[in-house]
Each structure stands twice: as structure tokens, then as C-alpha cells.
Amino acid sequence: MPHVLEDKWKDECGVAGLFLNCPMEDTDAARAAFYGLYALQHRGQESAGIAVSDGHRIKLHKGMGMVSDVIREENINQLPGNIAIGHVRYSTTGESGIVNAQPMVFHYLQGMIGLAHNGNLVNTTELRKQLATYGSIFQTTTDTELIGNLLARYSQDKIEDALAKCMIDLKGAFALVIMTEERLIGVRDPMGIRPLCLGRFKNGYFLASETAALDTVGAEYIRDIEPGEIIVIDKTGLTSIKGASSPRRAHCIFEYIYFARPDSTLDGINVYQARREMGRQMAREFDIEADMVIPVPDSGTAAALGYAQEAGLPFQDGLMKNRYVGRTFIQPTQSMRELGVRLKLNAIDEIVAGKRLIMVDDSIVRGTTSKKIVQMLRNAGAKEVHMAVASPPTSFPCYYGIDTSRREELIASTMGVEEIRSFIGADSLHYLSIEGMFTAMGGNPDRYCDACFSGHYPLGMESIEKSS
Ligand code: SF4
């Protein structure tokens, strides 16, 4: 059942992995992986899991739900070892269910291997057929199991060589954390579509989707994993291998707009500052007469602040968010659907009454939530509601690990700006331009994937058509 309180693209997945040379306690690795996943909870709330190696065998615990529901103290106590990988998942491929939850642990010729994947492959149909021809059988519908099977095909090779071969076969977005009984490995796809960064402890290393996870566990940020790079960590230290290359990078720009935590820095750019710059850029592009700027919390907050600063307008909290509405919330029935947005957001009448508002949000997906918020502000007495969107219209679906709606469900794919304005009931509607978005990111559009705005898929449409 779709979550009634949300009208946003879904976060994909989050991965973390760590290698400790000499843990103080047997369960330090599992515990640090837990805290890392906790910091990445926004990237997936449907399942969570940790796999830990004690140097001889890999043990796994995973389940459906949020990190703190799935991984309890008693589970940590049963996961001794010095190498751990972890995963939080929102299902982007495969159905949601325990069988598809990650990490996945396999036995192959060289021993045991654990895998956790963030991203989405675009040539799965082709790869599955090829592997099935060689006798592979599949228990799940995930890309992760496919990658495990592919690795097993190259099992005569050392793991890093097998991975380098896999990287030639795999097309799409993948940030992987992998473990054997004795090693931790990080891999990023040749375009670097999904993020992966490296940090250091006094006694080891930490890999994570976002730097916020490094901060949480007290690891010092070293650098982002390069596109196409394979990092191998074992008791001799860290080795970097160039696995595959690409003529261009294609970091997901939507990570900066909505998915990643504002306190994370991805590929050298802090997410909060990027959002604030997008807000500033909007103020340069739009000419709206208004009394104040208000954010749709929390995703519109940094952009709204940037807008207010650049336009010289007051920034006010006109909407309050109930931060305790979780995904397990009792879903309102159809007849109570109108309740949805009000459970999550409420207008502050005393702030907005009689005012001309610029309401800033990061994006519009279906438009249904924006419509309700505009109405809520009008009911609270707002004189005018102008909506400023801190990204261009999202007209195209994502095939690289984000659970977007189908194209026909994206309001911007079927309606022009004026029609959307009329649908949401705002006095005016303004989207940040694609050029303005890149200006806010410091230029260099060739570094980013912007396919959901432009329809230009960095891996080409051909591969997408084959996979869909
Ligand atoms: S299509 Fe959009 S959401 Fe998907 S990877 Fe590209 S920029 Fe990110």
C-alpha cells in the first residue's frame, strides 16, 4: 500500500561496511555498523540487516522494518567479529520481503561472501538469461543476488579480479559493500551514479553511502570512492584498484536536491549548501512580490533560507512538521485520506494569516501533497501562496536506483507549469531552471546525472528499453 503521507520519490538504499584491526570488544564491528545504518535510515525503511565476519565465517541478521526494530542488543551480541557490512532498503528492484532483504550471504568456491548493494542495474534481463544458461538459479528478484551469481562465475580469480570482470558485465548504478571472511571491499560504478565514501578509525576503515554515517560513528572522512574504483581492505591495509572506466561521471543530482542528508558531503559538495544555493538561484530567477518565504519542512528548508537571504525577505516557519509520524503509522482509510497531510504538517495561522507567501519545496512528484498544503495555508488565512520549487520539473522516471512513480504519475510529464499551478491551486508556480540548478552546483553539468529532468540518461535509452 502506498504511504498516504508521502508524495516524494523514495530513497533508494543505504550501505555501510567496516574493517577493524583490533576491536576492543568482539561486537564493536556489529555495533558500529548498526550506528552507521541508523544514520542512513532515511535511505530505506523497509528492511535492515548486518553481516559480520570473525575471520572464519560470516554471520547474518536481517529483517523487515526500521534499523532499531530489526537489530536489537541481543542480535548484536550474537554477531562477534571485526568485519561488518550493513544495508537499509527501500525496495527498488524485487518485491519488498525478507527474501530480498540485504545483506545477502553466499557460499562460493573461495568461501563465503556477503554483499550489500545500493543502486539499480539496467541490464538485469540480459544478465539473468546469460547466467541461467550457465546453470544459475535464483531465489530472489534482486540485483544483489545477480551480482553474487556473476561473482561466482569468476570464482577461479582473486575476488578483486573477479569484481573487475563483473564491472565490465554490469550496466547501471551500483555502490557495493562486500565482505569475505577476511576482507572488506567497496565498489562504485564507473559513472559514480550512487555515492560511496571512505573514512578512517584509529583501528580501521569505514565505508558508507553518506558522510553523515562516518560522522555518527566517529570515523574521519578520507575521500569518496572514485567512479569505477575497487577498494580492498584487509589486515595489510587498503588497496585501490581501477576496476572500470567511463568517459564521464554521472553523480545523481537528486541526492543533493532531496535524498541525502543535509549534513552529508557527497563528491566534494555539501548537501545543505547545495540546497541553499539552489534557493539563492531561485531568487535570482524569479520575480515574486511577497511578504515572507516559508519552507515545506524539512526538504524545502535550506532552499527557502537561501531564497530569503538572496531576496532580502523574512524567512519564517509557516508550517510545522510532526516529526513522529513513522512509516508504520496506521494508514487512514480512503474516507479519511484528507487527514494525510494534516497528520504530518500543520500551518501556523498567526504567522501566515494575511501574508503573501513564497512556499519553497524541493520538488513536486504527483502534486497531490502540494495541493493540500496550498489549501492548508489558505485555510490559515494566507493572502497569496506562490510556490517555488528548488528543482526543475521531474518529467522522467529514474532507472538508477530511485523508486520513482511511473512516468504517467509524474505530474510534470503530462502537464505544463500553468496546468500544474492550476491543479495545486497556487497563485503562481516557479521551477528552478536546469541551468540554474547547475549554476548552484558550481557548474560542470557533465559531472551529474539529470535524467529525471532532462530525459538524457547517461547510460543511454537503449539499455533501459532492454531492461524494462
Ligand atoms: S534519473 Fe534523477 S534520480 Fe535517477 S540517478 Fe539520475 S538524477 Fe538521480
Description:
The protein is an alpha+beta fold and 468 residues long. It has two domains: 13-247, 4-Layer Sandwich (Glutamine Phosphoribosylpyrophosphate, subunit 1, domain 1), CATH 3.60.20; 270-467, 3-Layer(aba) Sandwich (Rossmann fold). Helix content is 31%, strand content 26%. The chain contains 18 helices and 23 strands. The strands form six sheets. The chain has a seven-stranded antiparallel sheet with strand order 3-2-4-1-10-9-11. A six-stranded antiparallel sheet has the order 5-6-7-8-12-13, with helices on one face. The protein has a four-stranded parallel sheet with strand order 17-20-21-22, with helices on both faces.
What characteristics describe this protein?
Glutamine Phosphoribosylpyrophosphate, subunit 1, domain 1, elongated, 468 residues, binds iron/sulfur cluster, Rossmann fold, 2 domains, 6-stranded antiparallel β-sheet, 18 helices, alpha+beta, 7-stranded antiparallel β-sheet, 23 strands
Present the secondary structure layout.
Elements: E1 13-20, H1 28-39, E2 47-53, E3 58-64, H2 67-70, H3 73-77, E4 83-89, E5 104-108, E6 111-121, H4 124-133, H5 143-153, H6 159-169, E7 172-180, E8 184-188, E9 197-201, E10 204-208, H7 211-217, E11 220-224, E12 229-234, E13 237-242, E14 251-252, H8 254-259, E15 265-266, E16 269-270, H9 271-285, E17 292-295, H10 301-311, E18 319-321, H11 339-344, E19 345-347, H12 349-352, E20 356-361, H13 368-379, E21 384-389, H14 411-414, H15 417-424, E22 428-431, H16 434-440, E23 448-449, H17 451-454, H18 461-467
Parallel strand pairs: 14-23, 17-20, 20-21, 21-22
Antiparallel strand pairs: 1-4, 1-10, 2-3, 2-4, 5-6, 6-7, 7-8, 8-12, 9-10, 9-11, 12-13, 15-16, 18-19
Helix pairs in contact: 1-7, 4-5, 5-6, 9-10, 9-16
Bound molecules: iron/sulfur cluster.
Iron/sulfur cluster binds next to α17.
